């Protein structure tokens, strides 16, 4: 019989059976557990263990009188981990063949020159800059990129060097295979399109995007000082229901993508794009909320953010910062050290937040000539950059007193 043997069990006993099979070494961990339409669960069994499987005693063991039978399925699902491994192997196999067809030998050095990580944007794979550096690849010409695309199951290929320091944060990207470099991402019901050659997309900030999406900003005017392609402006408009968003951005390519994305998500009527340097922005006294999403620091944007807040009612600033904790003497990597390391990090974030809060209160006072109270509402941890560098967001409530 073809296919993969599975134990079909009722959903309520699936976990018990799974554990039991796993402890007997009979569960095929390379395949996914599948829920079928009849309310039962299929647990993939290693064919070699099938003959030793004693269904009767399994049933007795789990005191279950519900369904428990062997079925065969034709199209099992590979587990995610297994998929990654087989993709990696596929690439390796294809490249090995290509090299050998050019009379070259497959070596460990070549293996080490394969991409270890990459970003997938739909059918485009964006490779990092630390791969395919060895001269031998040059001999393969375009054949190489067609083979890599096949190995990674992509249609288009591009390669990244580092994010440039031109202030636009544009990645330096070269297209290796394919006609164009526009890609589309859909996350949390919002679609983002952009040109990977000209703008960056930070999938890493997903937790912050989800947090923003959960805000209730109905009736509010929000200013997004570093809008990019709309990473935060869009969740403010689509999910948080902001009445209006002013989106500032100085990179014309990002502005082009932002415009498209506002239209694609049908929110352009509630957004004004201010193209140019936000420090020159003429707008003031309009905002209930200002988003300052720039790392390593958004400090250049603090004065304009203060001018933007409504003078009579104030509002909330979301201040992003890359905060670096001093290195402690952690020769040992034991659990106690790690815990105290975390605590030390939090203290550093708190200290940074206190400083920022005082600094902004002072700015507000200088700008408006009135006294303001600033209040730390929350410090959100977005991401860690080892070692001891953390991207955090401070929610700072600012009210005239
Ligand atoms: C980090 S990126 C996009 C940030 C986005 N919030 C994210 O999650 O990735 C910051 C954006 O701010 C823009 N930018 C930086 N400084 C600016 C300034 N002074 N005025 C206007 N835009 C600026 C850059 O062009 C870039 O698109
Ligand atoms: C979001 O994270 C990326 C790295 O994943 C970073 O480069 C980018 O600047 C971050 N955006 C903000 C708001 O700081
Ligand atoms: C965060 O800041 C540290 C130190 O200032 C820097 O080395 C690192 O590159 C920064 N990371 C990002 C993504 O800005
Ligand atoms: C506010 O003005 C005072 C007096 O001119 C100055 O000392 C202080 O540095 C200013 N605050 C900020 C944050 O610029």
From TrEMBL:
> CDD domains annotated for this entry?
AdoMet_MTases
Q: What is its EC number?
A: 2.5.1.114
Gene3D superfamilies (UniProt xref): Met-10+ protein-like domains, Vaccinia Virus protein VP39
| The SAM-dependent methyltransferase TRM5/TYW2-type domain, residue ranges | 118-400
Tell me one Pfam family matched here.
TYW2_N
| Keywords for the protein's UniProt record, in alphabetical order | S-adenosyl-L-methionine, Transferase, tRNA processing
The Gene Ontology terms for molecular function here are:
tRNA 4-demethylwyosine alpha-amino-alpha-carboxypropyltransferase activity; tRNA methyltransferase activity
Q: Which PROSITE patterns match?
A: SAM_MT_TRM5_TYW2
Choose any GO biological process term that the UniProt entry carries and state it. tRNA methylation
- Spell out the reaction equation it catalyses: 4-demethylwyosine(37) in tRNA(Phe) + S-adenosyl-L-methionine = 4-demethyl-7-[(3S)-3-amino-3-carboxypropyl]wyosine(37) in tRNA(Phe) + S-methyl-5'-thioadenosine + H(+)
Can you list the GO cellular component terms from the UniProt entry?
cytoplasm
Pathway noted in the entry: tRNA modification; wybutosine-tRNA(Phe) biosynthesis
Q: What does this protein do?
A: S-adenosyl-L-methionine-dependent transferase that acts as a component of the wybutosine biosynthesis pathway. Wybutosine is a hyper modified guanosine with a tricyclic base found at the 3'-position adjacent to the anticodon of eukaryotic phenylalanine tRNA.
Q: What is this protein called?
A: tRNA wybutosine-synthesizing protein 2 homolog
Origin species, per record, is Acanthochromis polyacanthus
């Amino acid at each position: 019989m073809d296919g993969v043997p599975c134990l079909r069990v009722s959903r309520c006993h699936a976990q018990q059976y799974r554990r039991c099979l796993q402890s007997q070494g009979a569960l095929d961990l390379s395949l996914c557990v599948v829920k079928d339409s009849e309310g039962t669960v299929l647990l993939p069994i290693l064919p070699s263990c099938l003959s030793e499987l004693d269904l009767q005693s399994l049933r007795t063991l789990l005191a279950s009188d519900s369904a428990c039978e062997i079925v065969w399925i034709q199209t099992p699902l590979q587990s995610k981990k297994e998929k990654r491994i087989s993709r990696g192997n596929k690439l390796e196999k294809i490249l090995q063949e290509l090299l050998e067809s050019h009379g070259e030998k497959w070596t460990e050095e070549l293996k080490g020159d394969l991409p270890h990580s990459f970003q997938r944007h739909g059918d485009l794979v964006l490779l990092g800059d630390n791969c395919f550096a060895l001269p031998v690849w040059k001999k393969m010409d375009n054949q190489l990129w067609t083979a890599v695309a096949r190995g990674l199951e992509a249609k288009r290929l591009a390669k990244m060097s580092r994010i440039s320091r031109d202030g636009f944060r544009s990645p330096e990207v070269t297209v290796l295979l394919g006609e164009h470099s526009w890609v589309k991402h859909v996350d949390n019901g919002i679609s983002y399109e952009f040109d990977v050659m000209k703008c960056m997309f930070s999938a890493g900030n997903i937790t912050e995007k989800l947090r923003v999406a959960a805000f209730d900003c109905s009736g509010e005017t929000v200013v997004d000082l570093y809008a990019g392609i709309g990473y935060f402006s869009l969740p403010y408009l689509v999910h948080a229901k902001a009445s209006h968003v002013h989106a500032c951005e100085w990179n014309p390519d990002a502005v082009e993508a932002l415009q498209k994305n506002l239209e694609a998500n049908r929110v352009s009527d509630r957004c004004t794009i201010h193209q140019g340097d936000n420090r020159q922005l003429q707008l003031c006294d309009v905002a209930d909320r200002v988003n300052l999403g720039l790392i390593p620091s958004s400090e250049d944007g603090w004065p304009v953010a203060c001018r933007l807040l409504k003078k009579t009612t104030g509002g909330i600033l979301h201040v992003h910062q890359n905060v670096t904790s001093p290195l402690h003497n952690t020769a040992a990597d034991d659990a106690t050290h790690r815990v105290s390391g975390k605590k030390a990090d939090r203290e550093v974030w708190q200290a940074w937040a206190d400083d920022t809060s005082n600094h902004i209160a002072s700015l507000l006072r200088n700008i408006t000539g009135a006294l303001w109270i600033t209040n730390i509402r929350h410090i959100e941890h977005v991401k860690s950059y080892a070692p001891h560098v953390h991207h955090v967001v401070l929610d700072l409530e600012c009210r005239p007193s």
